[in-house]
Amino acid sequence: MNVIRFMLQNRTQVVELTLEHLGLVGLSTVFAMAIGIPLGLLIAHRPRFNKPVLTAANIIQTIPSLALFGFLLPVPWLGDRSDRLAILALTLYALLPIIRNTYTGIRGVDPAVVEAGRGMGLTESQLLFQVELPLAVSVILSGIRIAVVISVGLATIAAAIGAGGLGEFIFRGLAMVDDRVILAGAIPAALLALIADFGVGWLEKRLAAG
Q: Are 137 and 105 in contact (CB under 8 A)?
């Protein structure tokens, strides 16, 4: 196939752009977890914050990706570096599934188990780390899996602002009206999404079975 030949001829660039893509997705997912999991825990234990947090995360999801990049461009420090801007945008898009699944996982823990922990003298932090999080971890991982798959797809748009990644091939191919170049970006991106979905899904099932 022509696309395979093209990818082999340009394998160095394919690898470089794939690594850039992985960097954008990996960093944004780590930041989204660092923000989203604590927010999910907060709204699970403080229901009054539920509506504003989830509403804000839902609103972010409704903003078209290119429009969000445009809104963030004038922000000091961020707008100077396209990769920073792309990572922030991807982080914002990844928040909703992580927050929602963390909330769902914690709220799904059997209250009787929590009360039994309290009866054994566990503090609130011990209950969280020794009871609630271990029981909710598979549900939280499900949210992370969704977030990663979303980020892999959205990271292709980051090339529009010069942040690199596999979207470089896609936008170049569109400009050249060349299917080979488009597929050279689209195929690795799709494979990354499938690998991430399978890998995190496997971990989720292992933890649930354990």
A: yes
